[in-house]
Amino acid sequence: MPATPAWPPKSAPRLFVAETLAAGLSVRIEGNPAHYLARVMRVDAGDTVILCDDVTGEWAARVSDVGKRDVTLAVAELLREREAVPDLWLCAGLLKKDRFDLVLEKATELGAARIQPMLTRRCVADKLNLERARAITVEAAEQCARTALPELCAPVKLDALLAAWPEGRALFFADENGGEPAAQAFAAHAGPAAILTGPEGGFDEAERASIRAHPAARAVSLGPRILRGETASLAALAVWMARAGDW
C-alpha cells in the first residue's frame, strides 16, 4: 500500500500576505505574487500554498480559484506560530544599492528584529526605495522558511538616531579603530541591543567621537582586518547570534 503523501508538501510555494490569517479565511492574491503562483508555479485548484502573515505564524492554504489576474486561497491549518525573534537591531550605514541589497537579504536570514538604515557624512548613497527594500526582505524570509519579518525603517541621519536612542538598549559600535572583542562583549550582554556599522568610507572623526560619547555605546572590534560595510554588518550579526542570540 503506497504511503500517504505528506501534507502540506515541502515543495508548496510560500508567500507573506498583509492579512492576519485564520482558519477558514479566504485570501485573494493579486499582482506579482499572483503571477508567481499562476504562471511560475502553475498552481491549480486544490493545490497547497504556505502563507505567513508576520503576526500569527505559518498556515497551509488550498487554492480555490485561479483567475487571469488573481488567485484565491482558502486558509486551512496553522502549521507554526510566529517564531520568537531576538531583540537585536542592525543600524547600518547606507551603501550602494547592490551592497545594501545584500545587507537586507542576509540580515533577514540571520534574524535581525529591525533594520535601521543610517545616513552619515561619508555615505555614497543617500536614498532607499523602501518598497523595493521591503520586497527584498520578504523574498529572503520566504526562501528561508521564516515566519517573521524584520521591521524595516526609513533612513535617518546618525545624529538623529543617537539623539532619539531608547533607554536600556545597548549600542555596540563596530569601530575600525578598535574596541572590546565583539564576541566577548556580545556574550556578556543580556537584554535589548543594536549593532552600529558604517558606510563605504567609514565614520569621520567627529562622528566617531559622538558615538563613543553616547552613554549607550560600547565600541567593539571585529578583528584586525578592515571590513567593507556589508561584510561588517553581516559578520557582526552572525557573531551576535552565535554568542547572545538564538543559534
Describe the structure.
The longest helix is centred in the last third of the chain and has 15 residues, at 229-243. The radius of gyration is 21 Å and the shape is elongated. The protein has 247 residues and is α/β, with parallel strands linked by helices. The mean pLDDT is 95. It contains 7 helices and 13 strands. It has helices at 31-40, 97-110, 130-143, 158-163, 182-187, 205-213, 229-243, and strands at residues 14-16, 26-30, 48-52, 57-66, 70-81, 88-93, 114-119, 151-152, 156-157, 170-174, 180-181, 193-197, 217-221. It folds into 2 domains: 14-81, Ribosomal Protein L25, Chain P (Beta Barrel), CATH 2.40.240; 88-243, 3-Layer(aba) Sandwich (Alpha/beta knot), CATH 3.40.1280. The strands form 2 sheets. Strands 6, 7, 8, 9, 10, 11, 12 and 13 form an 8-stranded parallel beta sheet that branches.
List the helices and strands and how they pair.
Elements: E1 14-16, E2 26-30, H1 31-40, E3 48-52, E4 57-66, E5 70-81, E6 88-93, H2 97-110, E7 114-119, H3 130-143, E8 151-152, E9 156-157, H4 158-163, E10 170-174, E11 180-181, H5 182-187, E12 193-197, H6 205-213, E13 217-221, H7 229-243
Parallel strand pairs: 1-3, 6-7, 6-12, 7-8, 7-9, 10-12, 10-13, 11-13
Antiparallel strand pairs: 2-5, 3-4, 4-5
Helix pairs in contact: 2-3, 2-7
